[in-house]
Amino acid sequence: MRVLLVEDDADLAERIARALRTEHFAVDIAENGEDGAHLGETERYDVAVLDLGLPKLDGLSVLRSWRQAGRPLPVLILTARDGWSEKVAGFKAGADDYLVKPFRIEELVMRLRALIRRAAGHADSVITCGPLRFDAQTGQFERDGLPLRLTAFEWRVLSCLMLRREAVVERADLIERVYEGDSDVDSNSIEVIIGRLRRKIGGERIETLRGRGYRLTAGMAENARPDGPKGG
């Protein structure tokens, strides 16, 4: 999952980014409103964290520019402005959530996960696909009731596929959501990650659709397989 963090306080931005990366998020940082507006309009993100008091272009103007451009990404406003009028203005501009500084990073993480889950169309925090179980609120994966040990990149890929289970996820979409903007991405890196995931969750779970992307499926039920048990 990829986060756009628009925050002009460099120390705070780095602390937030470091904490989010620990939770397996990919994070791009913009230190002013103009850069944030540009990234939000040209890159693919799962969610944005947006300060209001930004240099060059204020946060509300950034948010309005995204909405006017038809960008549907969920946006959490993170600001020291705690007045009711500021909150109303933020939501009217198109914010999906509003968190006041100072804050607990654990709360920020939980709110971001909830925004991403709801944007993907999941009301329940627990998502299942065959033997896989993903708690989108805690970020935990299980297979057949046992915890899955995943690297950060594996977690990002599998969470993208899980949130869109049974749907095709384009390869370019995966790359943009897995890697941070300044990463040097090898052309075969996604295939390597997919290969590792197949060994961990079962090769039949992730389908490759050449020229299109990948799809996570529940697979055939045991009694629906050609060599499965027969009645009679």
Automatic annotation (TrEMBL):
GO terms for cellular component: cytosol; protein-DNA complex. It holds the Pfam family Trans_reg_C. One of its GO terms (biological process) is regulation of DNA-templated transcription. Residues 124-218 bind DNA. The keyword Phosphoprotein applies. CDD domains: REC_OmpR_EcPhoP-like, trans_reg_C. Residues 124-218 form the OmpR/PhoB-type domain. Residues 2-116 form the Response regulatory domain. This is Two component transcriptional regulator. GO terms for molecular function: phosphorelay response regulator activity; transcription cis-regulatory region binding.
